[in-house]
């Protein structure tokens, strides 16, 4: 686990130095980032408290603000294992009151327990080559939400794959999630190389 955290921090730290706080610093393009954010935002449409796992430089919060989907800094918490990314998020905050909403934190080592209505994660699994570690992270995120979890992954059905990135079999991931809750949905319609899973708690 420690090596993964170090490798991840180093990888994105280098991209951040090269590209600044932009989509390229989290290894994606602006149009893909906005598309994924739209899917996640729709899944958590009325949540008042949100945990953004692997928040990077804070782009998802910016998306929510621009789309009038969040009111007040108190409802949002962004965490990332990269100190450089958290520093960039704080520096890029639209208002000073949002700066303390970003924290350096490894969810597996410092878990939450149902403190948030919604938990989201975009693009965090592309370096997760250990399937057990990916499952552990999904379970940790699920424990942190009281209502809904939404996350995306790269799909093994991608026609072209980038060396070094981790791709997942959607059906296998969905089956794993259904062990935690039967209320799961998988969306593989917006990109051929990407899919989103939404998991809900219901009475």
Overall description:
With about 200 residues, the chain is of the alpha/beta class. The protein has a single domain (about 1-200), classed as Rossmann fold (3-Layer(aba) Sandwich). Helix content is about 35%, strand content about 20%. The chain contains 6 helices and 7 strands, in the order H-H-E-H-E-H-E-E-H-E-H-E-E. It has a 7-stranded mixed β-sheet with strand order 3-2-1-4-5-7-6, with helices on both faces. Strand 6 and strand 7 form a beta hairpin. It is globular and about 40 Å long.
Distance between the termini: 34 Å
Write down the Rg. 16 Å
Give start-end ranges of low-pLDDT stretches.
none
Strand order of the largest sheet: 3-2-1-4-5-7-6
How many DSSP-defined strands? 7
The H/E string reads: HHEHEHEEHEHEE
CATH architecture: 3-Layer(aba) Sandwich
Domain unit count: 1
Q: Based on CA inertia axes, which overall geometry fits?
A: globular
The major beta sheet can be summarized as: 7 strands, mixed
Mean pLDDT: 91
- The fraction of residues assigned to DSSP E strands is 15-25%
Structural class: alpha/beta
């Amino acid at each position: 686990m420690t090596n993964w955290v170090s490798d991840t921090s180093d990888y994105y730290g280098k991209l951040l130095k090269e590209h600044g706080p932009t989509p390229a610093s989290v290894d994606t393009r602006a149009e893909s980032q906005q598309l994924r954010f739209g899917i996640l935002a729709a899944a958590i449409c009325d949540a008042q408290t949100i945990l953004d796992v692997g928040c990077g430089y804070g782009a998802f919060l910016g998306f929510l603000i621009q789309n009038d989907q969040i009111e007040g800094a108190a409802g949002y918490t962004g965490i990332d294992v990269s100190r450089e990314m958290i520093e960039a998020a704080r520096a890029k905050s639209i208002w000073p009151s949002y700066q303390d909403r970003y924290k350096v934190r490894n969810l597996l080592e410092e878990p939450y327990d149902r403190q948030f209505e919604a938990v989201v994660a975009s693009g965090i699994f592309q370096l997760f080559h250990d399937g057990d570690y990916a499952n552990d992270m999904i379970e940790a995120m699920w424990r942190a939400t009281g209502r809904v979890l939404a996350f995306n992954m790269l799909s093994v059905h991608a026609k072209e794959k980038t060396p070094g990135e981790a791709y997942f079999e959607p059906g296998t991931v969905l089956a794993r999630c259904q062990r935690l809750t039967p209320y799961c949905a998988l969306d593989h319609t917006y990109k051929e190389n990407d899919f989103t899973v939404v998991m809900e708690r219901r009475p």
